[in-house]
Amino acid sequence: MAIKGFSLTKKCDHVAFIMDGNGRWAKARGLARHFGHHEACKRIIEIYEACREFNIHVMSFYAFSTENWNRPQEEIDHLMDYLEEFFQKEIDYLDSVGTKIMISGDLTPIRESTKKVCLEAMERTKGNNAWTINVCLNYGGRDDIVRAAKKFALDVQKGEKAAQDLDESLFASYLYTAGLPDIDLMIRTSGEQRLSNFLLYQNAYAEFVFTDVKWPDFRRDAFVTCLKEFETRQRRYGGLING
Predict the structure, then answer these.
(1) Residues 94-107: pLDDT tens digits?
(2) Counting Cβ atoms within 10 Å, is residue 171 exposed (0-12), middle (13-18) or buried (19+)?
(3) Which residues are catalytic?
(4) Among 40, 122, 140, 179, which is most buried by a count of CB atoms within 10 Å?
(5) What is the pLDDT of residue 2?
(6) CA 45/CA 89 separation, integer angstroms
(7) What is the value of pTM for the model shown?
(8) What is the pLDDT of residue 1?
(9) 103 — phi, psi (to 5°)?
């Protein structure tokens, strides 16, 4: 579907977002950092709606990394508060339009109230298949790969798999994102230009777009600007254009 005269013609099944700049956005306004995270949650549903209009079926959001435990506990607590608030506010609507909620990451150390809300959202929406929101929570790309390798090794040890069975497709089935398409477009806001341990395996052939816009200001028009940039890219996948 076209928005403001723009139509996306390139295949784009999965967009991933590194939602950066929340703390700096708040600091620039004389606010505590956590107010930036609260505002950031409001952008998720707005960008989700834009993805639906462009028929992008899978969205991954980097909510909390394995390295984010180094932040002050008060900020972590607020982040979890806002994640719970997001699901409590939006789950009825997301479920009603056929959205599946996935969580990528180790929920073991996540506080019980947040874990409960996440697990309930996944259970409630597990039968949906129109759209997917993948929340990367306590997630690290290296951890994901190591975890997958250990799971495969255990299956070999139990005799359920043979080492020679392993190929890229089988390995991907052991990742948190099993069943999801590879990422087509990875967007990072706030001007930083690095992956920060985000979906390393899944980003193998993604197009990267880095924008100076901080995530709390990343509204539909900013997203469309990123899609326009994606539209100009020649996706070779290691090959050559025109042979």
Answers:
(1) 999 999 999 999 99
(2) middle
(3) 20, 68
(4) 40
(5) 42
(6) 11
(7) 0.93
(8) 41
(9) -120, 120
